[in-house]
Specification:
about 90 residues
C-alpha cells in the first residue's frame, strides 16, 4: 500500500534513541508491513526509511494516523491487522 504522510510533528523524544529516519509530511511511502502497539495502535513499517529494529526486535513502525492511503484500500487486510493482538 502506498501512503502519504500528513503529520510529521510532535514525535516522542524518547524514541529518538532508536529512530534515526522519520517520515516527512507530503512525502509518499510504501508500507511493507504493519505492527500494532498499545501506545501507538496500528503502525506502518515503511520501505523508504532505514531504521534498525527496536530493542525488542520489532521493526520501527509509525502510527497509521500520520498517513493517508493513496489509491485503493484493502479493507480485508486492515480488518485482519486490527484483529491481531497488541505488542509492547
Amino acid at each position: 500500500m502506498t501512503v502519504i504522510c500528513i503529520n510529521d510533528k510532535n514525535w516522542n523524544p524518547e524514541m529518538s534513541k532508536y529512530i534515526k529516519e522519520y517520515p516527512v509530511e507530503g512525502n509518499t511511502y510504501t508500507v511493507v508491513s504493519r505492527n500494532h502497539t498499545a501506545l501507538a495502535g496500528l503502525g506502518y513499517v515503511l520501505d523508504e526509511l532505514n531504521n534498525p529494529p527496536l530493542p525488542c526486535g520489532t521493526p520501527v513502525g509509525f502510527s497509521a494516523k500520520r498517513f493517508k492511503p493513496i489509491g485503493e484500500i484493502n479493507i480485508e487486510e486492515i480488518t485482519e491487522v486490527l484483529q491481531e493482538p497488541s505488542i509492547i
